[in-house]
Specification:
The structure is a single chain. Helix content is 52%, strand content 17%. The chain folds into three domains: 111 residues, Butyryl-Coa Dehydrogenase, subunit A, domain 1 (Orthogonal Bundle), CATH 1.10.540.10; 101 residues, Butyryl-CoA Dehydrogenase, subunit A, domain 2, CATH 2.40.110; 156 residues, Butyryl-CoA Dehydrogenase, subunit A, domain 3. It has eleven helices and ten strands. It is an alpha+beta fold. Strand 6 and strand 7 form a beta hairpin. Strands 1, 2, 3, 4, 5, 6, 7 and 8 form an eight-stranded mixed beta sheet that branches. A two-stranded antiparallel sheet has the order 9-10.
Length: 383
């Protein structure tokens, strides 16, 4: 695919990449992981000053009003640095959900754009397997307030968030399938319990328990059909953003592997001169370019009004990028030898992040199956 960023998008990418190169070197990442800290507060303040949380917030809510290609540029710039900050959780995913709901979450969007608050989406549950429809959490009206009860799983950066965007079905448990609603729930609200843990790539997530959590009527951001639609559109665009991050990391992995082959000596010469290893690097490059094309396709079509086209582009990209990530990461580890598995080399940290990205919103096998179903449906409709 022949595609280039325009001048504004390129300047955005260069500004973020330059800032991170100076403020968040690999040694800083390792120090943060060793310390057990969730993120670097100074770095987050710097990202706020650069306007990162405002990127996808509409101009009417005080943001920059950008779209998927600018998000692509952001994730390309940030990807190789393996940020622990809530860039994806708050500035991308949570912001997208609110943006898709229109004016309902405008006040909160303005606060996110200014960096005054951090939000994260608490939607997926233990039995959902990253399907959007299954929601067992319940919201029941109690006078002028809402009572929330349920469990949410893998809530990214929940410990850093000021606000949880909690999805729930309306009505008491056992009353049948009610419509979906989305609630703004402070993380410190009585009845909210977090069990935090580190993911394979060093980012933190949490299991969130909601037990008789009472929130005011104004905390209900939206109800009914707009909620599942907003969730689907936001997850599609967020998946495209993850694809951009994965491609940038794969590019960094390939570059580091080539540099290692040029400098590692064996039998009196760089091992990069061995033809068998050159062939493996060539295979890595082919996988990378295929993934890059699919990532761009997903970014261009993730806002398509054609539902089938949007779903095919996102699932196709997620399937191919996941396979490419696994291939490139495994080849890089093998070509680096035993050192490739150690925390001292950045390639091992990159591979862990690629593994985590593959699992978010369904792994490559899941999306390959979805893509095949979508293609069968398209063929059936044409017959």
């Amino acid at each position: 695919m022949d595609f280039e960023l325009n001048d504004d998008q390129r300047q955005l990418k260069e500004a973020i990449a330059g800032f991170l190169a100076g403020e968040f070197p690999f040694e800083r990442l390792k120090a943060l992981k060793r310390s057990g800290k969730a993120h670097d507060e100074r770095l987050w303040r710097g990202l706020v000053e650069l306007g990162v949380p405002a990127l996808l917030v509409p101009t009417g809510a005080g943001g920059l009003g950008y779209g998927p290609i600018e998000t692509y540029a952001l994730m390309e710039a940030a990807g190789p640095h393996l940020l622990l900050e809530p860039v994806f959780a708050s500035a991308v995913l949570a912001t997208l959900v609110l943006e898709k709901l229109g004016g309902a979450g405008e006040r909160l969007l303005g606060e996110l754009a200014r960096g005054a608050r951090i939000a994260t989406l608490a939607h997926f549950e233990r039995d959902s397997r990253f399907e959007l429809e299954p929601v067992a959490t319940r919201a029941e009206r109690e006078g002028s307030a809402w009572r929330l009860d349920g469990q949410k799983s893998l809530v990214l950066q929940a410990g850093l968030a000021d606000v949880l965007l909690v999805s729930a079905r309306l009505g008491a448990a056992g009353s049948g399938a009610g419509g979906l609603a989305l609630f703004e729930v402070p993380r410190t609200q009585p009845g909210v319990r977090l069990r935090e843990y580190a993911l394979v790539d060093g980012q933190r997530a949490a299991e969130v328990g909601l037990e008789a959590v009472s929130v005011p009527a104004a905390a209900c951001i939206a109800t009914g059909e707009p909620v599942p639609r907003a969730l689907e559109l936001a997850v599609a665009e967020a998946s495209a953003a993850l694809g951009a991050e994965a491609v940038a990391i794969m590019q960094a992995v390939l570059g580091a592997t080539i540099e290692y082959l040029r400098t590692r000596q064996q039998f009196g010469q760089p091992i990069g001169r061995f033809q068998a290893l050159q062939h493996r690097v060539a295979d890595m490059r082919v996988q990378l370019e295929q993934a890059r094309s699919m990532s761009l396709l997903a970014a261009l079509r993730c806002r398509s009004d054609d539902t089938a086209e949007r779903r095919r582009a996102v699932s196709g990209a997620k399937a191919l990028i996941g396979e490419a990530s696994r291939f490139i990461g495994q080849q890089a580890i093998q070509l680096h030898g035993g050192m490739g598995m150690t925390d001292e080399l950045q390639v091992s940290h990159w591979f862990k992040r690629l593994t985590a990205i593959d699992l978010w919103f369904g792994d490559s096998d899941t999306h390959l199956e979805r893509y095949l179903v979508l293609m069968r449906e398209e063929v059936s409709s044409d017959v």
